[in-house]
Amino acid sequence: MYFTTYQSPLGEIAITASNQGITALAFQAGNAAITPDPNWLKDESKFVEIKTQLDEYFSGNRRTFDLALDPKGTPFQKNVWRALCTIEMGKTVSYGDLAKAINNPKAVRAVGTANGANPIALIVPCHRVIGSNGKLNGYAGGLGLKSKLLMHEGAHFKV
């Protein structure tokens, strides 16, 4: 397992990776901060591409990420996370919309739980999921960060 940090305009981000791809990305000021394991390796060559793409995202020159991902989760969670990756920058969906997108419209709560368990923030854009009333709810990085990300992306939501 590999580990690095990235200084974004919105605060420090921790990133972990396996040889297969990115396993986790977390804003360190949020509730899902990553604590480095002493056995993890610090090999910056594993993170050149993600740091380049994050630079491009934060400068407004990237709308989608193209990275190998290796999140750990159940098949249901991975299905939800794949659906999250289809939400275009500048758009938002509700938990109900996301449940419909995975052909399981009654699984709204389970979708919300899977969304909250997403280990790869930002790249797997769980911040683009809002309440059916258009208001922000739940984000491991905090609602302030969620609103900043959505504003950066040009998304509309209610305060």
From TrEMBL:
SUPFAM superfamilies: Methylated DNA-protein cysteine methyltransferase domain (SSF53155), Methylated DNA-protein cysteine methyltransferase, C-terminal domain (SSF46767)
Catalysis: reaction(s): a 4-O-methyl-thymidine in DNA + L-cysteinyl-[protein] = a thymidine in DNA + S-methyl-L-cysteinyl-[protein]; a 6-O-methyl-2'-deoxyguanosine in DNA + L-cysteinyl-[protein] = S-methyl-L-cysteinyl-[protein] + a 2'-deoxyguanosine in DNA
Localization of this protein: Cytoplasm
Coiled-coil segments on the chain, per record: none
Alphabetical list of CDD domains matching this protein: ATase (cd06445)
InterPro entries: MethylDNA_cys_MeTrfase_AS, MethylDNA_cys_MeTrfase_DNA-bd, MethylDNA_cys_MeTrfase_DNAb, MethylG_MeTrfase_N, MGMT, MGMT_N_sf, WH-like_DNA-bd_sf
Keywords noted in UniProt: Cytoplasm, DNA damage, DNA repair, Methyltransferase, Transferase
Predominant cellular place of this UniProt entry's protein: cytoplasm
Domain Methylguanine DNA methyltransferase ribonuclease-like: 1-71
EC id: 2.1.1.63
Active site: C126 (nucleophile)
Gene Ontology annotations of biological process type: methylation
Keyword Cytoplasm carried by entry: yes
Enzyme class (EC, first level): transferase
Free-text function comment from the UniProt entry: Involved in the cellular defense against the biological effects of O6-methylguanine (O6-MeG) and O4-methylthymine (O4-MeT) in DNA. Repairs the methylated nucleobase in DNA by stoichiometrically transferring the methyl group to a cysteine residue in the enzyme. This is a suicide reaction: the enzyme is irreversibly inactivated.
Family, as annotated: Belongs to the MGMT family.
Matching HAMAP family: OGT
Additional comment: This enzyme catalyzes only one turnover and therefore is not strictly catalytic. According to one definition, an enzyme is a biocatalyst that acts repeatedly and over many reaction cycles.
Protein name: Methylated-DNA--protein-cysteine methyltransferase
Organism whose genome encodes this protein: Thalassotalea loyana
Source species taxonomy: Bacteria, Pseudomonadati, Pseudomonadota, Gammaproteobacteria, Alteromonadales
